[in-house]
UniProtKB/TrEMBL annotation:
<feature type="domain" description="Amine oxidase">
    <location>
        <begin position="20"/>
        <end position="492"/>
    </location>
</feature>
<dbReference type="InterPro" id="IPR002937">
    <property type="entry name" value="Amino_oxidase"/>
</dbReference>
<comment type="pathway">
    <text>Carotenoid biosynthesis.</text>
</comment>
<dbReference type="GO" id="GO:0016627">
    <property type="term" value="F:oxidoreductase activity, acting on the CH-CH group of donors"/>
</dbReference>
<comment type="similarity">
    <text>Belongs to the carotenoid/retinoid oxidoreductase family.</text>
</comment>
<keyword id="KW-0285">Flavoprotein</keyword>
<protein>
    <recommendedName>
        <fullName>Phytoene dehydrogenase</fullName>
    </recommendedName>
</protein>
<keyword id="KW-0125">Carotenoid biosynthesis</keyword>
<dbReference type="GO" id="GO:0016117">
    <property type="term" value="P:carotenoid biosynthetic process"/>
</dbReference>
<keyword id="KW-0560">Oxidoreductase</keyword>
<dbReference type="Pfam" id="PF01593">
    <property type="entry name" value="Amino_oxidase"/>
</dbReference>
<dbReference type="InterPro" id="IPR014105">
    <property type="entry name" value="Carotenoid/retinoid_OxRdtase"/>
</dbReference>
<dbReference type="InterPro" id="IPR036188">
    <property type="entry name" value="FAD/NAD-bd_sf"/>
</dbReference>
<dbReference type="InterPro" id="IPR008150">
    <property type="entry name" value="Phytoene_DH_bac_CS"/>
</dbReference>
<keyword id="KW-0274">FAD</keyword>
Length: 517
């Protein structure tokens, strides 16, 4: 039997998972007066935003681009703190470079005039269409990010109210179809439509609402957190501890306990029972409902429904260090996207056929040009990411067998197109495949970003931030509303706190109590 919460004490919250969604939820619950216990199975906080170190190279495993920094500034303000004092976030300009195998290059930066020049250089006839695309993107940002993205979407009425906006903005159309309606050059169509891949979605199927990313990049910049996203996550954990909360690393939750239809605590894999007034899960909703609530009967998020859902793509990520290469490959900056010979064909292979193609498109991260703390002096730290099929369904890729073959293939692409001769300098190497996403993050089907953000898996259709299955249970993070990506998971905690009741018995840290007496 689960111990009841201490009724003489303050209201308590358990947060399962210290991804950026879980960390921001814990901060906001602390600010709301809850006594918070945050548990993560990993030995660091940050989830997909955590890092590993090998031979003096720090590898930020996941997010590298921070957009919409004001979501963090607001989060810190709500906790009575100043974000800029805790995290050194710096703008990166140019944002990134997109390259094609024919040698053409498109450099994305903040300045609108420079961007129009870039478009003109590739395809003069597309300049008017590009300007219209920017306006389209702004309209979708206001509607999708500032509007419904920041509001709860747990009632059908919440969705119905938004339907006229969806119709007006042609949410039925895909990101790619929208870009193609504005520009004709295939390279520009790619450059204006690839953003859903940053959150695991197929640009040819994800709703065109996601073209909002172009506006938020242009308006608020592309940033890098010195020390990596791990540094931001660590700063978030410090705020939680300063609020009097507890952050426990290396603790895995095996089960969420439910009494009379309400979540009332958790049991860890070590058999420890912890009681709480509310439980917030930052584990993937698939893992939350299928694994942590396996003993409970579900009405909506049944195993069959989760299995029918469409999951985001998988990722093959090779982290490597190179010795004595600082200053070499001078044309390779912080962020480079190298297109393969095919765009739509490759997307089809990844998302529809679930076939591991020979060709690939690659995102190359080289943080050592911005942040000296990622590599020993004179060396470089890289990661190369290639989107691949997830593990859903029969005939999924056997990564134990394919990992080395695929790495060699990727090394060949990098060698031939971006960083010739790099393998002679290798000083560290680490690989994540969809299998690792299962073992490290308990990610269903090894998906890189939880449920794919298709129209019928977005807003009300996504697992709700307030559970539709059990009382006192809340969800935060990439698999819930509004979706994946750093700004969205932090916003999901903003939505969550609109749904969580104020702590009936607010937490007062000991020092505050003593000072008052
Ligand atoms: C390679 C990569 C690159 C990316 N690049 C970018 C980028 O540049 N910009 C951007 O904005 N976004 C990017 N993203 C997306 C972004 O990182 C994620 O959407 C976001 O970090 C997810 O945060 P989250 O809070 O949902 O959960 P996660 O980071 O998935 O964290 C969930 C946590 O829950 C823990 N957990 C799960 N189950 C249990 C359990 N039973 N008990 C205890 N703990 C548990 C896990 O260990 C994990 O730490 C990237 C993602 C990846 C993978």
């Amino acid at each position: 039997m689960t111990a009841r919460p201490d009724t003489t004490g303050s209201s308590s919250a358990i947060v399962i998972g210290a991804g950026l969604g879980g960390l921001s939820a814990a901060m906001r619950l602390g600010a709301k007066g809850y006594r918070v216990t945050l548990l993560d199975r990993l030995d660091q906080v940050g989830g997909r935003g955590s890092s590993i170190t090998q031979n003096g190279h720090r590898f930020d495993l996941g997010p590298t681009i921070v957009t919409v920094p004001q979501v963090f500034e607001q989060l810190w303000r709500e906790c009575g703190r100043d974000f800029r004092k805790d995290v050194d976030l710096r703008p990166v300009d140019p944002y990134y470079e997109i390259r094609w195998r024919d040698g053409s290059v498109f450099t994305v930066r903040q300045d609108e005039g420079a961007m129009i020049d870039e478009v003109r250089r590739l395809s003069p006839r597309d300049v008017p269409g590009y300007k219209r695309f920017l306006k389209d993107s702004e309209a979708r940002y206001q509607f999708g990010f500032e509007g419904l993205g920041r509001r709860p979407m747990n009632k059908l009425m919440d969705l119905i109210r938004e339907l006229p906006g969806f119709v007006k903005l042609r949410a039925d159309r895909s990101v790619y179809a929208h870009a193609a309606s504005r520009v004709s050059d295939p390279r520009l169509r790619m450059a204006l439509s690839f953003h859903p891949l940053f959150i695991g979605g197929d640009p040819t199927h994800v709703t065109s609402m996601y073209i909002l990313v172009s506006h938020l990049e242009k308006e608020f910049g592309v940033h890098y957190a010195m020390g990596g996203v791990q540094e931001m996550a660590d700063a978030m954990a410090r705020v939680i501890e300063d609020q009097g909360g507890t952050v426990r690393r290396g603790v895995e939750v095996d089960e969420i306990t439910v009494t009379a239809g309400c979540a009332d605590g958790v049991v860890t894999t070590d058999g420890e029972r912890l009681a709480a007034d509310i439980v917030v899960s930052n584990a993937d909703p698939g893992t939350t409902y299928d694994r942590l609530l396996r003993k409970q009967v579900k009405k909506r998020w049944t195993p069959a429904r989760l299995n029918r859902s469409r999951w985001s793509m998988g990722l093959f990520v090779w982290y490597f260090g190179t010795k004595g290469t600082a200053g070499k490959w001078a044309d390779v900056g912080h962020h480079t996207i190298l297109n393969g010979p095919r765009y739509r064909g490759l997307l089809k292979d990844i998302f529809m056929k679930r076939h591991l193609a020979q060709d690939m498109s690659v995102y190359l991260h080289r943080p050592s040009v911005t942040d000296p703390s990622v590599a020993p002096k004179g060396d470089d730290t890289f990661y190369a990411l290639s989107p691949v099929p997830n593990l859903h369904g029969a005939n999924s890729v056997d990564w134990a067998e394919m990992e080395e073959t695929y790495r060699k293939n990727l090394a060949g692409v990098l060698n031939d197109n971006l960083i010739p001769g790099f393998e002679d300098h290798l000083s560290a190497s680490h690989i994540l495949t969809p299998d690792t996403f299962v073992s490290r993050y308990l990610s269903p089907h090894g998906a890189g970003f939880s449920l794919e953000p298709r129209i019928f898996q977005s807003a009300w259709f996504r697992p709700h931030n307030i559970s539709e299955e059990f009382g006192n249970l809340f969800l935060v993070g990439a698999g819930t509303h509004p979706g994946a990506g750093i700004p969205s998971v932090v916003t999901s905690s903003e939505v969550l706190t609109q749904l969580v009741p104020d702590a009936p018995r607010p937490y007062v840290p000991l020092e505050t109590k003593v000072a008052a007496e």
